[in-house]
Amino acid sequence: MDVNHGKFDPPRGVHTTGSGTLPSAFDVSGLAVAAIAGAASAIDRLARFHGAAPSTVTVDRDLASLWFGMSFTPDGWELPSPWDAIAGDYACTDGWIRLHTNAPHHRAAALKVLGLGAGANRETVASAVAPWNGEELEAAVVAAGGCAAVMRSRAQWLAHPQGRAVAGEPLVAWGVARSPDDGGRRRHSRPAGAPPGNARRPLEGVRVLDLTRVIAGPVATRFLAAYGAQVLRIDPPDWEETAVEAELTVGKHCARLDLKMPGGLARLHELLAGADVFIHGYRPDALDRLGLSDEVLAERHPSLVNVALDAYGWSGPWAQRRGFDSLVQMSCGIAGAGMAHFGSAVPHPLPVQALDHATGYLCAAAALDAWRGRLDGTVRNARLSLARTAVELMGSGPSDPAAPLPALDPAALVSESTAWGSGRRLPWPVAIPGVVPRFDVPALGFGSAPAAWD
User: CB within 10 Å: which end of the chain, N or C, has fewer?
Assistant: First the structure.
């Protein structure tokens, strides 16, 4: 992604419409356009591979900005809050720290370190955090299996070993190219026949196994589903994200497997054998423990496109650290820059979880280009991270304060049925002549389908 005069440029050949701009210390709307345009351009390249005529990709700036937030609005019912009651920013002795407690085990870890019981509220947590040094509390929560991030400045992050490591990583790290077979010793179990996909629906019939959660990866697979991919999302038996189920399960079949049990792991390998693309958000050590390292996957499933994403990057001392968009914003200086830019008394994050969304569309683009390469006889893996996407964003300048906010005619919203009730979804932000985006599967929620390919 290119930044000129503090603003993101869309990929060459992409036409943009609209002028809506999200207010931010950085060019968030420009990032939205650039990331979505990158994924759209990859779809266009795949459509041309399948015989489509050259055409112009158009991205609507207002819609791109809005898709970086919530695309789905319920009619007559409400979504639960996306945040746990004690998740958020707290003052400590030397600044600010953010606790991410949405997952029950992350909440329990933070409360244990703070010496609090399960009934703690924001007031008791604030009192318990106040005497702590920020970095000491961050280290203690992480060591206990929780998630926390001290607010650092950009300079502090660039001086930090992890900040230096991430700055040296490419935006998309491509693995070594390999052949999609191994001399016939192993066969991909996908049904025989012509390669899936066509000019109108470039991913029709392409099987995407989705082991991602919490926004970035699900955004990637939602984009792929819109162009015909058969997405099978796998979640643990007890995983819940009720606030975003309608948002991020649309277009997908969603099943549950316990990968800690031999039967669940064996079933996953059967699914991998039938998959074309594997997208996951597991840390490398977690995959190694499951016997799913890149090396093992390449050996057992040589034709599989493998795309991975994580929070803090793939090198450096924090390569195995759990993280989320809001934590990375605190770590890398985004929340601190927003605080200074807006004259806020508290950390000021981006107006949307832009690192998640941008990385999701970049992940989709990487999967698309890797799949096109697979059809052409070469398999490549790709890795991305929220922290590396943040490097791109922090190279931009603030939004124009005179620019209009993103706008949308309510009549343009698309009616949609879900497992929880009806609602309306934003119009698609991309237009490619002759290429049809649509969701073939309604949002039905986690565990609503069997762990099997159609």
Answer: C
